Amino acid sequence: SLKTLIPHTDGEKLSKAAILQQTAEYIFSLEQEKTRLLQQNTQLKRFIQEFSGSSPKRRRAEDKDEGIGSPDIWEDEKAEDLRREMIELRQQLDKERSVRMMLEEQVRSLEAHMYPEKLKVIAQQVQLQQQQEQVRLLHQEKLEREQQIRTQVSARTPPQPT
């Protein structure tokens, strides 16, 4: 009856020892597949729980499996380790957020203290630019007056014979 349950090619002659060996290998492969599927199932349930918000107690009850070779204890320990790690990561994230918020507040405070200084510097730069522009305009007016005077003088003076 074991021979009918294990995968083999039809018409293959197997000894009782070979049947037992293949049965053991088949059971082992089935247990590995079951463990892989349980892990995948647990991961999918976690994703569902994250998106739907179901309670952890309900989730633990859903995770139980009463089959032969069930890795319940191993799965529970692994799940507990993952929960602890996730809690630690959330705590670290919360600390980092609070430190970041504190630093951002300090930057805003420093900028508020520095801002009047920046305004003074900008005002001084604008004032200097205005003074430079006034000097340039005065110089340009002077040059224009000198040019007008030269033009008037040359218009009054008769041309010199060559």
Automatic annotation (TrEMBL):
Source organism of the structure: Aptenodytes forsteri (Emperor penguin)
Keyword Disulfide bond carried by entry: no
Chief location: nucleus
Keywords, in A-Z order: Coiled coil, DNA-binding, Nucleus, Transcription, Transcription regulation
Gene Ontology CC terms: nucleus
Keyword Nucleus among record annotations: yes
Disordered: annotated segments: 49-77
Taxonomy of the source species: Eukaryota, Metazoa, Chordata, Craniata, Vertebrata
PROSITE patterns: BHLH (PS50888)
Protein name: Transcription factor AP-4
Ranges in a coiled coil: 79-148
Domain BHLH, chain residue ranges per copy: 1-30
